[in-house]
Design goal:
The chain has four helices and eight strands; from the N terminus they run αβββαββαβββα. It has 227 residues and is α+β, with helices and mostly antiparallel strands. Among the domains are: 53 residues, PAS domain (Beta-Lactamase, 2-Layer Sandwich); 97 residues, PAS domain (Beta-Lactamase), CATH 3.30.450. It is elongated.
């Protein structure tokens, strides 16, 4: 359910208000100043008939329940452009960083309190990019990373490579099976067409022979029946 928290998070609403009063939609992921809960804040300019901005509509959506969706996966994260984890399939990873942050970025984020005031301990050694393979907790994973907005927020999903190998093997087996069926039916079609050609050539030989001789021709089969 969407609820208004204008009094609970005044600083955040001031930030997005400043963007919307200029005529642009504003949004912000962060902790509520008073509630301490994770939320998505958004604002939109209100215009009069002339198109002039006369006010701003603002709202907040609590995101704690979205953790249920993320917990369906072993490792699934919502991160900002710097790799700070805002939502995670594992609660102990929330407000840590997916890869190391430099000292200046650490201090800047901590002073903003967007994600709290504690240092962001890194989970992995380097930035995770889409398509790379990583090792985490002694297991190998394939990284899928998709950007979801213009500010660089992205969803990161780690899929066990063993599972991908199974999918690849199934795909290979299906491909081999389909190719085998194609070859089988192609063989049947070829043999059928070839048999028809042999029969046609044989009939042509007998027709030419019978049409070009004056004598009577008897054809005997294996049971000595003749025509």
């Amino acid at each position: 359910m969407i609820r208004k928290h204008l009094l609970a998070s005044p600083i955040i609403f001031v930030l997005i208000f400043q963007e919307s009063i200029k005529g642009n939609p504003g949004h912000y992921f962060g902790l509520g100043v008073t509630s301490g809960k994770r939320g998505f804040y958004a604002s939109f300019p209100v215009r009069d008939r002339k198109g002039d901005v006369i006010g701003v509509v603002a709202m907040k959506k609590d995101l704690d329940e979205m953790g249920i969706f993320f917990r369906k996966y072993d490792y699934c994260f919502l991160i900002n452009r710097d790799g700070v984890i805002f939502l995670s399939s594992k609660s102990e990873f929330v407000f840590r960083s997916l890869w190391p942050l430099d000292k200046e970025m650490q201090e800047s984020l901590m002073s903003s309190r967007q994600f709290g005031h504690k240092p962001f301990r890194a989970i992995y050694t380097t930035e995770m990019t889409d398509g790379m393979n990583v090792t985490l907790g002694g297991n190998d994973y394939f990284v899928s990373r998709k950007v979801i907005d213009c500010d660089g927020w992205s969803i990161v999903l780690l899929t066990p490579t063993g599972r991908i190998s199974v999918y690849k093997l199934i795909g290979i087996l299906i491909t081999i099976g389909v190719c085998s069926l194609i070859m089988f039916f192609s063989g049947i079609i070829y043999i059928t067409d070839r048999s028809k050609e042999v029969i046609r050539q044989s009939e042509n030989k007998y027709r030419l022979l019978s049409d070009n001789v004056n004598d009577v021709i008897f054809v005997l089969d294996m049971n000595l029946n003749y025509t």
